[in-house]
Amino acid sequence: MFKTPFLAIAAAALLATVAGCTTPPWEKPQVASPVVSAPALPMNGMLVAPSGMSLYSFDKDTMGSGASTCNGPCAALWPPFAAATAAEPMGNFTIVTREDGSKQWAYKGWPLYTYSKDTRAGDMTGDKFKDVWHVVKR
Question: Using one digit for the tens of pLDDT, what is the confidence trace for 7-24?
Fold first, then answer.
């Protein structure tokens, strides 16, 4: 249909632009204001990470202390629910600084964790583990 590959590429780009699939290179894309949303979501009465993985609290942490007591091998089994360096507290979600300097989300003062043995979104295999780990209820 087209004599040169350039024309075919240009035609495909034009069609994609018309279909709304891309912004043409000669137009400056509009940057939308970022939407700030909570770091965790409610699901079936509990909190989950955006990935759908259950979030847990640890009884050995102290509510509102701004610190986590689960470090080293504990954190390998119970990975902290990490917060980006630039993350800001919002509503019931605060940020604690871990002993290694990384940031972790907390809910109502309790640091949040996932459980490495949960393999699918919605798994809660760590709930009541050794009577000190609990799924965070909303």
Answer: 333 344 433 433 444 444
Tell me the pTM. Answer: 0.73
Token reading at 113: 């964790």
Diameter over CA atoms, the chain: 72
CB 60 within 8 A of CB 70: yes
d(CA 29, CA 36): 21
* Spatial separation of the C-alpha atoms in residues 68 and 104, rounded to whole Å: 8
Cα–Cα distance measured from residue 70 to residue 58, given in angstroms and rounded to the nearest whole number: 8
Q: Write out the chain in H/E/C secondary structure.
A: CCCCHHHHHHHHHHHHHHCCCCCCCCCCCCCCCCCCCCCCEEECCEEECCCCCECEEECCCCCCCCCCCCCCHHHHHCCECEECCCCCCECCEEEEECCCCCEEEEECCEECECCCCCCCCCCCCCCCHHHCEEECEC
